[in-house]
Write a structure and sequence with these properties.
By secondary structure, this protein is mainly α. The chain has 18 helices and no strands. The longest helix is centred in the first third of the chain and has 32 residues. The termini are close together.
Length: 379
């Protein structure tokens, strides 16, 4: 989600910028389906269409991480330069927006608004307008996000990836293609861990009540998507469109069906634990990888010659982080506006996605154009 190390337009890998556009669209779409209460989610009409639409959008985060790996691995700068350039530009807007979100309930109280307005904006948050509540959430920012800033979970992940990349790069730089494939194979096996723990045994491969670091712990997680992005951009899959479709479409559909049917069956039952609700939506899972990989391979084959498309790609790249940070501020109002429209539930979700992305994009672009302060706020 950050600007790559290349700067001049003739050196840009435009298709990677467009992958980021697909990812940010999918991320916005996921949040447009999530802005409901558990009771609403279990309603048959919403369970069907929310599951249908939301399941299609699960590659969002893996695509972001793969682009990061494709652009930044192996890190060629020294530790201080890399951290200074990357972390500063993400930590500052992260802190600004995290504080603003957590102050929002208190500000509504100062304005004399009803506590219910908090849930109009943030469906899952506690309607607490006290300053002590806001201060508690702010003091917890170094440790985790609050329900007022749920989207910030990814920023913690991104900061962790940036901290990890210079160390991981030492191995990536000297590892052979065969060794990288071996790492990716073990990582692929680790993607089954959520399902094995849920349906086979809670304690898996050495984990137990006093040890959470099991057999494949060091091969698991989003670092696999990092390496996969690096591997594919340096070892492109040179097959025709017809072969890619013949291979990729069935893989994508299989991954989608597992995601959709699994999530729909779980959420159809009210009162399920959060861990089970999110099980089939887990990003580090084989079904989400099966959806992500064909999309990335397809975009890698896209040839872009239009200067207008290139400008569009550059613009969305510079606004992506700001859109991520700020879009939750507009999610509730956009959802309520679209919810009042006399159209099908599926169309409401699509309209809400387009509206929320458009409003946030315009907002971010305007703030960034205001000067250096605007760019610090939006990243």
């Amino acid at each position: 989600m950050k600007e790559p190390s290349y700067a001049s337009s003739d050196k840009r890998i435009i298709w990677l910028d467009l992958v980021k556009f697909i990812a940010i669209f999918m991320m916005i779409a996921v949040h447009c389906t999530d802005n409901v209460t558990p009771a609403e989610r279990s309603e048959p009409w919403y369970n069907l269409w929310g599951s249908f639409y939301g399941s299609f959008m699960r590659p969002a985060i893996p695509l972001f991480v793969m682009v990061t790996g494709a652009l930044l691995l192996p890190v060629r700068e020294n530790l201080s330069t890399f951290y200074g350039k990357r972390l500063t530009r993400i930590v500052v807007p992260f802190l600004i927006w995290s504080v603003l979100y957590n102050l929002f309930p208190w500000i509504t109280g100062l304005l004399g608004l009803s506590p219910t307005v908090i849930n109009d904006f943030f469906a899952w948050a506690e309607p607490d307008q006290s300053f002590s509540g806001a201060l508690h959430h702010i003091l917890m920012i170094p440790f985790n996000f609050s329900l007022l800033a749920v989207q910030m979970w990814y920023v913690y992940l991104l900061i962790g990836l940036y901290l990890y990349m210079p160390i991981f790069s030492a191995w990536v730089r000297q590892a052979s293609v065969r060794e990288q494939r071996f790492f990716l194979l073990l990582w692929f096996v680790s993607l089954f861990i959520p399902y094995l723990r849920e349906y086979l045994t809670k304690d898996l491969w050495g984990t137990c009540s006093w040890n959470e670091f099991g057999l494949l712990y060091y091969f698991a997680g989003f670092n696999g998507y990092l390496l996969l992005g690096h591997y594919l951009i340096n070892n492109p899959v040179n097959i025709s469109w017809s072969k890619l479709i013949a291979f990729g479409l069935p893989v994508f559909i299989t991954g989608y069906c597992i995601t959709f049917l699994g999530f729909k069956s779980v959420t159809a039952v009210p009162g399920q634990p959060v861990e089970l609700v999110e099980l089939f939506f887990t990003y580090c899972s084989p079904n989400v990888l099966m959806m992500t990989l064909p999309l990335f391979l397809a975009m890698q084959k896209v040839k872009i010659r239009s200067e207008r498309t290139r400008r569009f790609a550059v613009n969305i790249l510079t606004c992506t982080l700001g859109i991520w940070m700020s879009h939750y501020l507009f999610l509730g109002p956009c959802y309520m506006l679209v919810e009042s429209l006399p159209i099908h539930t599926m169309l409401k979700m699509i309209v809400c996605t387009i509206l929320l992305l458009s409003v946030t994009w315009i907002f971010v672009y305007a703030v960034r154009k205001s000067g250096n302060i605007g760019r610090w706020i939006m990243g």
